Amino acid sequence: MPSVLPDGEPAPEDGTLPAEALAGAADRPLGFYAHVPYCATRCGYCDFNTYTAAELRGTSRDDYAATFAEEVRLARKVLGDDPREVETVFFGGGTPTLLPAADLGRMLGAIRSEFGLAADAEVTTEANPESVDPAYLAELREAGFNRISFGMQSAREHVLRVLDRTHTPGRPEACVSEAQAAGFAHVNLDLIYGTPGETDDDWRASLVAALGAGPDHVSAYALIVEEGTQLARRIRRGEVPPTDDDVHADRYLIAEEALSAAGMEWYEVSNWAAAGGDAGARCRHNELYWTGADWWGAGPGAHSHVGGVRWWNVKHPAPYAEALAAGRSPAAGREVLTEEDRRVERILLELRLSAGCPLSLLRPAGAEAASRAVGDGLLEGGPYEAGRLVLTLRGRLLADAVVRDLVD
Asked: CA triplet 23, 27, 33: central angle to 5 degrees?
C-alpha cells in the first residue's frame, strides 16, 4: 500500500493560511500539481499514493474531474485576491491518462478558469505508454497540454518484468513520435537503473533506445526499494538480488556519458535536457519544487507549499471527495517551516541543481565542510570562488553525503 503521510499539526477545516505565508506572494512563481491516483495495476516497486479498481471504495473515477475542480475552487478562496497566473501545471499519479482526455481537459480548465494560465505556461502530464494513442494525444494537445512524460523505465523485457511494468518494449519510443506528431513541444522519457537482474549492457541498451526516440528530456532514477512494496518482499524472500549502491554509481556514470554525448546537459542530479539554449526543454515545474516556489497540490495525498507552509491531503479518494462535498479542506495536516527549516531545505534542494546554491546559506561548520569538499573534488572550484556551491560529477554520486556535511 502507499507510504504513510508525515506527522504534522492539524490543518484548518477551511484551509486558511497564515497571513505571513501570503505576504510577498506576487513575487513568487505559482504552480499546480494535479494528482490522479488511479493505476490499472500496482508496479512492484511503487509506493506512491495510487489505487487500482479493487482498492476504490465509495468513489468512482467518473466523478474525479468534478471533485478535483472543487479543490481548485477552494484554492482560489484560500489564496484570495492573489494576482498570480499559474506558470506550471503537472498531472502526476498514478496514471493520469487512465482518465478520459476530456476529463484531464476539464481539470486543466478549472485551473485556467479560477487562476488563469500564463501565456507561456508549461502544462505536463505523465502517461503510461499503453494508455494513450494518437487520437488521445491530439485531444490532450487541444486541451492545452504541451509537455508529456512517458514512463519507459527500461528497454529490456526481463527488467520490465521485475518492475511489474505492463508496457511492451518499444512502445514508449513510439509514443515519443506520436506525441511530437500531435504537437507536443516537449517530451520526456523516465528511466530507472539498478533493477535486480539488469546488466550494464541492459542499461546501455535502454539509454540507446531512449535517445534514439528523440525526446528533449530524459529522467534517470536509481531504483529505491521501499518497505511494504512487492519488490521489497521478493528481495527479502531471496527471489531477486538486492540493489547495490556501487552498481547504481556505475550506471549513473554510464548515463552521464551517453546523455552528454547525445547533446543533453544535466540540470538536476537525475534530469537531463537538450542543450542549445532552449531552457524550455527543462521541466520548469520541477524547478519550481527545487527552488522553493509556491505550488498547490490538488488530489488525494497531494502535497502543497505556499510561503513556508506545507500541507498534505488525506490519501484515499473517498474521504477526499467527502471533505470537499462537505465544504471542508481535504488537508490531513500541515507544518509551518521555520527559517532554519527553509535554510536547510534550500541547501538540500538547490545543491541538486547545476546552478548550485549560494555559499552564503552555510553556517561556519558548513562553510568549512564546503572548503574540504572542493579539495576532495566534490564541489566545483570556480563557482565556489564566485560564492556558489556546484556539485562535480563525483559530487553528484555522493550528493546526500555532501549535503549532510553542508547543513551543519
From this structure: 90
Where does residue 337 fall: left (phi above 0), alpha (psi -120 to 50 degrees), or beta otherwise? beta
Q: What confidence tens digit (pLDDT) does each residue in 269-315 have?
A: 999 999 875 567 999 999 999 999 999 999 999 999 999 999 999 99
58: phi then psi, degrees, rounded to nearest 5: 70, 20
H or E element, residue 126:
strand 117-127
Phi, psi of 36, deg, nearest 5? -115, 105
Amino acid of residue 119: A
If we measure between CA atoms, which residue out of 195, 208, 184 comes closest to residue 153? Answer: 195
Element (H, E) at 332: strand 331-336
Which pLDDT belongs to residue 150? 98
Q: Quick check: 199 and 160 in contact, CB under 8 A?
A: no
What is the pLDDT at residue 224? 80
Half-sphere exposure of 176 (CA within 13 A, CB side): 20
Number of C-beta neighbours around residue 165 at 10 A = 26
Helix (H), strand (E) at residue 125: strand 117-127
Contact, 52 vs 41, CB < 8 A? yes
Q: pLDDT of 98-156, one tens digit each?
A: 999 999 999 999 999 999 999 999 999 999 999 999 999 999 999 999 999 999 999 99
**Residue that the C-alpha cell 486541451 belongs to:** 143
Q: At what angle do helices 134-143 and 171-182 cross, to 10 degrees?
A: 40
Of the candidates 103, 105, 99, 79, which has an alpha carbon nearest to the alpha carbon of residue 294? 79
- Residue 280: how many other CB atoms lie within 10 Å: 17
**DSSP per-residue string spanning 169-212:** TTHHHHHHHHHHHHT-SEEEEEEEE--TT--HHHHHHHHHHHHH
pTM score of the predicted model? 0.94
